[in-house]
Amino acid sequence: MNYNTSSYNPSSSGRISRLISEQADLMCKNKCGHYGNKVQEGYCSVCYKIYKQQQQQQNSARYGPRDEAFGPDGESSQGVFGRSGFATLPKSARLSLDSLSPLTGSFSKFEEKKKQQTDRKTKSFRSVFRKSPTPSSPQPGKKSPEKGSKEASHRHGSDGGSSPQMSPRKVANTDKDQIRDEINTFLAQIPNKRIVSDVVSKVKQCEEVILELLRQEKGSIDEASDIVQDFYKNFQAKTEIVKCYQEISMEDKETLMNLIEKYLTISLYKEFFSPMSTATEDETQDLELQTRIRQLNWMTCKHLEVALNERDRSVRDLVYASINVIIGMDSVKPPQEKLACVTQCSHHIIEALGKSKQGPTAADDFLPTLIYIVIKANPTRLQSNINYITRFCNAACLMRGEAGYFFTNLCCAVSFIQNMKGESLGMPEEEFQDYMSGRSVPMESWENYFLESIHAMEEMSNVVSELELRQQEFLKNVEKFKENMKNKEDRVTEQVDKILKRTPLTFKPRKVPTNIDEEDPALNETSLPSPLKPEVVSIVGASAGNESSVTLPATAEVEREAPSKATQVIPTSSQLVNLTGNDSEEYKEGEEAEVFESISPSPQSESETDLQQERIEGVEKLKEKVSRQKNQASLIDEGSHRQENFDAVGTSSKSDQRGSENVEEGLVVPSKPKEKIKSVDNNDAMESSDLDP
Amino acid sequence: MDASSSNFGAGSSSRSFSFKVVLLGEGCVGKTSVVLRYVEDRFNDKHVTTLQASFLQKRINIAGRRIQLAIWDTAGQERFHALGPIYYRDANGAILVYDITDKDSFEKVKTWVKELKKMLGNDICLSIAGNKTDLESQRTVSTEEAENYAALVGAKHYHTSAKLNHNIEELFLDLSERMVSISEGQQRKPTTRRNVVIVENSDASANVPETNKTGCCG
User: Fold this and answer.
1) Record: contact B52-A361, CB cut-off 8 A
2) CA of A109 to nearest chain B CA: how many angstroms apart?
3) Which residues pair with B20 in a beta bridge?
4) A345: domain range?
5) Is the CB of B75 less than 8 angstroms away from the CB of A363?
6) Which domain-ending residue is among A427, A443, A459?
7) Smallest CA–CA distance from B203 into chain A, residue
8) Could you report the per-residue pLDDT of A324-343, keeping only the tens digit for each?
């Protein structure tokens, strides 16, 4: 089959699957009167284009700037890739598109994969080419005037869920966008645009021919492979013969071939890799190989005479590195990259062998080791990968150079694993079968477990040492923090001291509450005038002033006893006030004591300030009483006079007042440093937060 | 690898070839020593820079033709014997090495020759190398027998010593010349695309060789 001679027309809507039998099935789902196409999800080409555009718009709200050179301009000769969405896919559409990629698939996902591949039959391969983002792009159909209404009606149709296969399916994928960018960047460097347009059209043609082929039931993957291989070969030849290609260097030609190969394989990866037509075969092979390798789990280095010294740590690390690389082969798409994985794995093996023994590594050592690694790794879908590389990697590249050699070795390894017998390992067939079926375990296999345990141990010890490091770091930080705290503490103490020094908190010696009943030992009774005794005078209003004038000098004389004096006096006066209305003769000692008690209950237990306070309160009370009795007492004026006099006595006891003031001051003073301390604390907190690891 | 593809349409004076040469031989016959001696001119050197001797390349010039030799070492152990066809598919030449002190290794050469002939017919150039001539005193394979056999199968026989660097250069040079002449002869024939078939059971595509495709790109 030659893709050059194919007269494939992408906009033709007349390609109808032979399975469709009814006339209604042939019509466009949009009821526009045109014929629909199965690969266009039942739409005619015009409606399908609109549908795709809408899908595209849903997926990316806005589109990035277009590459002018490869834009969808129909008149431009180089615009073919652009027209097919080659260069113009917006970045925003590149996210989260890989969900359909079969790469993550393991064997448990076969069902899913099969379903995908079945879906493939119904969906358009060329959908990628259909997402011309501008709605105003020229429509090949004659119905363009009705586009708007059609679009609307179509949207209704799709919203109504009339077609089950119209679930929003993502058609582009990130890898493809990347390679598109890559190839466009490369082509942009080429001055001769004839080359560019030629490359673009030929590659596109090849892609379409393959898609067309695979869409047919009979199209086998081997035919596709042949087409691709022929394309590589002919294109290679063309770059050597055709005149315009002589302008570019050999390196560029090679790059171009690589890019073309990459582009084709990436864009057709789903079709090429473990394809539907041979899916059962490839998948079965994968499964068989995987089961086989699993059964061979008991094998050790000794069975294959592998020269690896797995007790050496660096060798073990390399072995695990090579296992990782070979497993990673499944997750890259272009055959070249898969080959690169094989090569890298092989290099790790060779390095490991170089560390295990003297001299350079020959195939005699290499192949058994590779087999051993493959058995240990059990790479996913190994057979599918090998088939894929064989089919779609440029055969010229595959057979040339190191990559080809290592790939051949990998094939040998797989072949050996598949055909291994007891004889190949130098053991009786029965014994081999026993091991394979798990009936018995070879003596040597303890080494496997040993090595695996060692590896696990190493990993754990790595974790432990890491933890240890962190612990040390933590401890260091704790120490630092402690030190910092100590510094802070010192500083705070210092500051507090400074502040205290500046504003000393001096407590005046506290006054011992004087018990008036007690004798002051410091004073001789003799040196003191005998306490005044309130004289009970038969007072009548007017003489009150006299009385107070008598009391006054007395208080001034005995300063220390003033409080008691005052309190003593207060009741007296109050009593007097109280009694003003009554007969003053009725005054009794008992009543006086009672009132006194109510004012200052126990001088010993109360601080002096309290006393003072109480005293003042008492005065206030008295004042109240006085005012209350204003109406009653006719002699109120005298009483109040007396009261005033008494007040004077209260204030005159200056020593008391000062004392209480001092106490008050003593209490107030520290409040200022307190604030300062607080601010220092804040600083501490801030600085200590730096320590937090 | 098709040698013809690389010199397609190139000028007659500066043709370039690249050949795949497989190296066959039982373990311990000195395959690796022979190829290392040839490519790097080293023997049991403690300062061997290349870690690997399994795949080596060498560029040479013969009468203005640029030739790139890719030398594929193969695992010689008996257990890997069945894998031979995978290795020497599409090979342009093969060097079969045996140890003149080891009769068995010579017998092994015979089986390989048979296989190569069966697989690749007369397209492949064969060279048989009796290595370790420095151990002449311990020889068990007679020179006459070996040379007679080589003549019988159309191979060139060389007595080599990797240790003494004896006849190594000649061995490869002669092989290259023969490969060039075969390749040049092939060029006049229409080229058929060789399908790369890696595993034996997937050779369906090899059975349907597509000949004479009309060039799509021309």
Assistant:
1) yes
2) 24
3) B70
4) 287-443
5) yes
6) A443
7) A222
8) 999 998 888 888 889 999 99
